Amino acid sequence: MDGAKLSYYRNQCNELGASVLKLQQQLTETRRDARRQRTIIRLMRRLYNQAALLNEQTPCQPLSEILIGDLVESLSLDCAALLHRCDENTLCVEYGLGVPADFRLPLPSPCAPQMTSTQAASQPAETLAAIESLHLTAWAWVASPTMDKLIFLGLRQPRSALDTTGLDDACLAIPATVLEIYLQLLEQQRMTETLRESAFRDPLTLLPNRISLLNRLAVNLERCHTTPDNHFALLCLDINRFKIINDSLGHTLGDHLLVAVGQRLKSCLRDCDMIACLGGDEFLVLLDPLNDPEDAERCSERLTQALNAPFNIHGYEIFISASIGIVHADARYTQPEAMLRDADIAMSHAKRSDRSKGQWMLFDPGMHQQILQRMELERDLRWALERQEFLLHYQPIINITTGQIKGFEALIRWQHPVHGMVPPDQFIPLAEETLLILDIGRFVLTEGCHQAIAWAQRFAKPPTININLSGRQFMRADLPSQIGEIITDLHCLPSQINLEITESALLSDPDAARASLDQLHALGFTLSMDDFGTGYSSLSYLHQFPFDIIKIDRSFIRALGEDASATSIVTAILGLAQALDKQIVAEGIETAEQLALLQQLGCHYGQGYYFSRPLDAAAAETFLQQYK
């Protein structure tokens, strides 16, 4: 074979060998990349699984231990550590294997986020000195973008091929990737913990919330049952008339006030006690332990006194008071919600007390029974209309000069199937509160109209029927049109109906009340101001509103002839009514002496037990026939 051919075949072999070598190198790199990817995936899976356990609050290894331990094992390292920046120029060990716990790495910022020992010449002398103290043959690091976290890797024994150890630039992809994943999981954990801490803190006051207090209360109750000598109490505190502050000064200022209230209350408590905010204007205080049960009352007094001092919020001087309910832990309580319920019940009783300033009240089991009875009464009240348990009684209104009947006041009665006749003062306030009074009021007006029509058909001079309108009814802007529709549908004349409105029903919105009264008066209804003299602005209302009749409250009539001031008030009212051309009805006449004095003073009409108690429809008709 000549030289030319030999040279040709030699070149072909060289090219083929180079191609084979290149393929081998590529295959090796591919295998290394695949191993790196598998390692990364395995480490990521381990970190994610561990993070899931931590989020579920399951006891397990910290993420830093998993991170460093798996890197040492996967990359066959002699040492590794997770460092965090402990000051501006130094990183300290957060967790390490094969690295002293007190190892400190001087590393001023800025510096390279990745570094290997082959690039060591570019590092500061103090950094290299610290690393040399570890006696490593090769090392590397990867850091977070902010350089506040850093993974340090090291070898103490020389290896035949560093690229298989994870300490060259290519293999640093493994710690760099898992460090990024680790930092993301740390942030997720931080956010989860923040959220979890918030299902336990009130966002406004930053005090513990209802859940947090109930958790501690449950622990206390369990301890109380195992160790009966451990005493504690729960206080429920509510700011009186807080809605007025919000409505008048705004919710932002109200929020600042709540924060200040929470801090002032907290300053009055011991470190061992707990205060929580339920949202709104209600706070809970857990007094634990209590050496003397009366300490709960003393603490309540101290809290109410502390709140009496004014609050200065954004230049406003605000005075508040609070009502407190107290309940002591005992064998009755196994669930924290029951104890919280009873503290709230006691607080409600304190709020409804006659004292104008804040006060506290101790829970009594009878209070709970009253609540249950109230719930039962409300349930039955909702069914009473459908079951036709309501009826009207009628109390006559007498012309005290002639003795003739002017009309009847319609008074609702509830014939309960179990409890018998339920007094109005027991169910009317509940009906007002639950707005059932709107349906009840419609029933009273309808039944009263039916009775007025029936008597108009039977008597030449039929009596008028007085119908009471509640404050809740009067708050509806469409009340005149509703009443007009009812009498139109029933073919009842407005002149047969006298509508009675208490002064308190006018207080919430006098302008709207005057508009409604004007419309009702224009429809032809006679209007009476009921319970005159018990309000705050009666005299001004007399000329502002189109009342035809004034009914003097029974409290003045009861004291007539016995209390000089009551007699003077009645005399003044009669004189004022005469000057304004209003008729007067005296309520609550019970004695002949009261009647005689009212006749002497020139009163027009009267009603009361002296003439008759309220009568059912049949008895009222009999009474009417006697006075034809």
Keywords summarizing the entry:
eight-stranded mixed barrel; single chain; Alpha-Beta Plaits; TIM Barrel; alpha/beta; elongated; 22 strands; 628 residues; 3 domains; Beta-Lactamase
As laid out across the biggest beta sheet, the strand order is: 14-15-17-18-19-20-21-22
What class do helices, strands and sheet pairing give?
alpha/beta
Rg over CA atoms, rounded to whole Å, is 43 Å
Which overall shape is indicated by the principal axes computed on the Cα atoms?
A: elongated
Classify the helix fraction into a percent range. Answer: 40-55%
Total domain modules: 3
Mean pLDDT: 86
The name of the CATH topology of the largest domain is TIM Barrel
Number of strand elements = 22
User: How would you classify the quaternary structure?
Assistant: single chain
CATH architecture of the largest domain: Alpha-Beta Barrel
Textual characterization of the structure:
The chain folds into 3 domains: 163 residues, GAF domain (Beta-Lactamase), CATH 3.30.450; 154 residues, Reverse transcriptase/Diguanylate cyclase domain (Alpha-Beta Plaits, 2-Layer Sandwich), CATH 3.30.70; 238 residues, EAL domain (TIM Barrel). The longest helix has 53 residues. About 1% of the residues have low confidence. The chain has an 8-stranded mixed β-barrel with strand order 14-15-17-18-19-20-21-22, surrounded by 4 helices. It has a 6-stranded antiparallel β-sheet with strand order 3-2-1-6-5-4. Strands 8-9-7-12-13 form a 5-stranded mixed β-sheet, sandwiched between helices. The chain is α/β, with parallel strands linked by helices and 628 residues long. It is elongated and about 155 Å long. 48% of the residues lie in helices and 20% in strands.
